[in-house]
Specification:
Length: about 800
């Protein structure tokens, strides 16, 4: 159902054969022919008549349209289906022509009557001129084909509550030799008889035909037999459609014209009503004209107002910022626009004129309302900023919070009301209460924000003081955990919390706040104080293994005077280890739970029994089914909220602690054994006696041969030098095997070093030898006094 275009012509199927209105098609059609620009200067022509009576042929020749025509050689059949609409080419003003489906076709069958009446009513409702196509030989005949058509036209006309004054142009086709002057009276008489025979409503019983129709008659020769004459007559008839809506034209006295821009929507709505089998209630001519004209004037004045320089300037000023005298200036501009409307619409129907004026006024007020709202927004924003500045300044100079907020709140609201009164316009009764309420909410929100900020500052200030006063001292107390640790922590917590709460209460006195709110803030500060200690305690509990190892290392490796221990073998290593482990377990028991209240617990005793004393018992004597006091995730009579280290965790920590400190104890034991061996390096007495007895002969040999003594003396000196250089007593102090390994690694480099030194002394001048040699001997002598013992040990 797309529009068809040819030279100067455009057509569209307005309603298809099934009665479906082509909404998209008519919209495109109106745009293509630019119908919306015509205003009221357009006309609508329709044609009705029997099927295959040459309606489309007549329209195509008369208006230069392109409607589909019947092919006579294929037989008489339905050509036009539904209703087609086209624009006439070369006719001014813009003229639209509708080609209706034939009224007595065999194709539609029983549905013919229904669609015939619907299409006829539709044509009468929107057409200014209706062409009735009829055969010349039907005039004067009782059973003529045109009589059902005329009855249909007159019947549907009665369904129009206030029908249009329509021009009905009878086109007599295939005119015979009988003059038109003789045919026209007979035709008019037939028309009158049909009119009189049609049932009419009570209101139109005596209404003459001329009140509904302008009847015109024209005759045309046969198109097939006298084509040239037919075209000449059609050309003459075409001239009558030029300026057809002008006074004296074919549609010069038409009524109820719909503006061209609304033609498509109007036609769609009329067809919907007709399809629903309802009566059409078209407005009266006077009301219709007034409605259309007043609407045009209203739109014109509204468009003029939009481009009004005074209004545009005022609107720009409003966009830029606050405007003084806004109400008076806008009232004058609106009053001028409405006065112009009243002047041009004076002579139209009063009801329509007033209605359209009210609509125009509403549109104008709707247009300027955003500017009015902007003005109120500027006023509200200005008052809010003034309140903020004044309120903050009052607080800075020391004025009470509540007093300052109340005073400036009242002053700003009074000034707001005065400025709003100057922005009101006379034409509208606009309410400023919403903006006023918004300002009140904004001011109260700012007061609440400042109050919250001030209170937050106070809270943060005292929380910071508490954190500084508690954090490091609590950490130090927990690091040196003992029986008095939690007592000291509780005293510190109570003292600092009471001090901070007292300061906060004094600071809150100036806010005049409710007692309940004040108590909540105090309670929050107290909770924060406890939270600092709990947080620090949990942090230290996470370091408990490290603290235990540090305490064990300190007590195990240092004596009572804090001096580093030297493991000589005389120390009671078992007692020292037990003491260090007991102190470490004490730290674990202190850190196991929080003790900020007066609660008591048996955690220390439980840990001692389960961990420390367990090593004294023979594990083989323990029953397999004996219960483990640490095989639990909670302590007896201790809530989980106070638990820092669970029993299971304590057991695991102690196991890891023992594993990691076992090496330290082992090293101490090794050091004692090494020291013990280092102090007993001489052979036993019986070995010395055996050496003397068994070596007597060798000793006598040495006495008999002094050369051996010299060799032995040189060997002694070399051995003494190696003893000193290798630090043999020091190497064996850590054990026999480590000493041997260390000496074997250092032996060759030491020997090489000695040989280098001897070679260097041999190359030294003789004068230097006496000085160096005694020095070397004295050094060797002073550094190594136990020469005899070493020599005897070697032997």
């Amino acid at each position: 159902m797309d529009a068809d275009k040819s030279e100067g012509c455009c057509s569209v199927q307005l309603i298809d054969g099934d009665g479906i209105f082509n909404v998209s098609g008519i919209d495109h059609f109106i745009k293509d022919v630019k119908l919306g620009e015509c205003g009221l200067s357009y006309a609508v022509v329709s044609i009705m008549g029997p099927q295959s009576s040459g309606k489309s042929t007549l329209l195509n020749n008369l208006f230069r349209t392109n409607f589909l025509e019947m092919d006579a050689f294929k037989g008489r059949s339905q050509t036009t289906k539904g209703i087609w609409l086209a624009r006439c080419a070369g006719i001014e003003p813009c003229t639209l022509v509708m080609d209706l489906e034939g009224t007595d076709g065999r194709e539609r069958g029983e549905d013919d009557t229904a669609f015939e009446k619907q299409s006829a009513l539709f044509a009468l409702a929107i057409s200014d001129i209706v062409l009735i196509n009829m055969w010349c030989h039907d005039i004067g005949r009782e059973q003529a084909a045109n009589k059902p058509l005329l009855k249909t036209v007159f019947q549907v006309m009665m369904r129009l509550f206030s029908p249009r004054k329509t021009t009905m142009l009878f086109v007599i086709r295939d005119k015979t030799r009988t003059p038109l002057e003789n045919l026209e009276p007979v035709l008019r008489e037939d028309i009158q008889k049909i009119w009189d025979s049609v049932p009419k409503p009570e209101a139109h019983k005596e209404t003459p035909l001329s009140d509904f129709f302008n009847v015109e008659v024209v005759a045309l020769s046969s198109y097939e037999e006298k084509e040239e004459q037919f075209k000449e007559q059609v050309a003459s008839l075409r001239q009558r459609f030029m300026q057809s809506i002008a006074p004296g034209g074919l549609a010069g006295d038409r009524r109820g014209v719909i503006p061209a821009s609304g033609f498509g929507f109007s036609a769609d709505q009329i067809w919907r009503v007709i399809k629903e089998n309802k009566d059409l209630d078209l407005p009266a001519h006077k009301v219709m004209v007034a409605t259309v004209r007043c609407e045009e004037i209203s739109n014109e004045k509204f468009a003029h107002f939009i481009t009004n320089e005074d209004w545009r300037k005022l609107d720009e000023e409003v966009q830029a910022g606050p405007v003084s005298g806004f109400g008076k200036r806008l009232t004058a501009i609106l009053g001028s626009c409405l006065a112009e409307y009243d002047g041009e619409a004076t002579f139209f129907d009063e009801g329509v004129r007033s209605s359209k004026r009210h609509q125009l006024e509403e549109k104008l007020l709707q247009l300027v309302n955003p500017a009015f709202q902007d003005v109120l927004g500027h006023i509200r924003w200005g008052m809010l900023e003034k309140f903020k500045a004044s309120f903050d300044k009052a607080l800075d100079i020391g004025e009470g919070f509540s007093s300052a907020s109340s005073t400036w709140h009242k002053a700003c609201m009074t000034q707001f009301d005065e400025e709003c009164a100057g922005a009101i316009i006379e034409q509208a009764n606009w309410d400023t209460s919403k903006v006023r309420d918004k300002l009140v909410r904004d001011i109260e929100a700012h007061i609440s924000s400042v109050r919250a900020s001030k209170l937050s500052e106070l809270t943060s200030q005292y929380e910071s003081k508490l954190h500084e006063a508690l954090s490091e001292p609590v950490e130090a107390l927990l690091e040196g955990a003992n029986d008095e640790t939690w007592t000291a922590v509780k005293k510190l917590h109570r003292r600092e919390t009471e001090s901070a709460v007292s300061g906060l209460r004094n600071a809150l006195a100036g806010f005049e706040m409710e007692e309940e709110t004040r108590d909540k803030m105090v309670k929050s500060l107290q909770d924060y104080s406890r939270g600092v200690i709990e947080s620090k305690a949990k942090e230290e509990a996470g370091k408990v293994l490290m603290r235990m190892k540090e305490r064990f290392g300190t007590l195990f490796s240092h004596d009572s005077d804090s001096m580093p221990r030297v493991w000589t073998g005389k120390e009671d290593l078992r007692a020292i280890t037990k003491l260090a482990r007991s102190a470490s377990l004490k730290l674990l028991s202190v850190m196991a739970v929080l003790r900020l209240g007066d609660e008591t617990d048996n955690i220390e005793k439980t840990l001692n029994v389960a961990l420390l004393d367990a090593t004294k018992n023979d594990t083989s004597k323990k029953s397999i089914t004996a219960s483990d006091p640490l095989a639990s995730s909670t302590w007896d009579e201790v809530p989980s909220s106070r638990t820092l280290i669970t029993p299971v965790q304590c057991k695991s920590i102690w196991r890891q602690f023992k594993t990691e400190t076992e090496y330290t104890v082992t090293q101490a034991i090794s050091a004692q054994e090494a020291n013990r061996r280092g102090s007993n390096w001489l052979p036993p007495p019986w070995a010395i006696l055996a050496l003397i007895v068994l070596g007597f002969n060798e000793f006598m040999t040495l006495l008999r041969n002094p050369l051996y003594l010299g060799v032995l003396f040189v060997g002694f000196l070399l051995a003494k030098a190696l003893w000193t250089q290798l630090d043999i007593p020091g190497e064996f102090r850590n054990g026999a095997l480590p000493g041997l390994i260390s000496i074997s690694a250092k032996f060759v480099p030491t020997v090489m070093n000695l040989l280098k030194n001897l070679a260097a002394e041999g190359q030294t001048p003789p004068a230097a030898n006496p000085e160096n040699r005694p020095s070397s001997n004295s050094t060797s002598s002073s550094e190594n006094p136990p020469d005899d013992k070493s020599s005897s040990k070697k032997d």
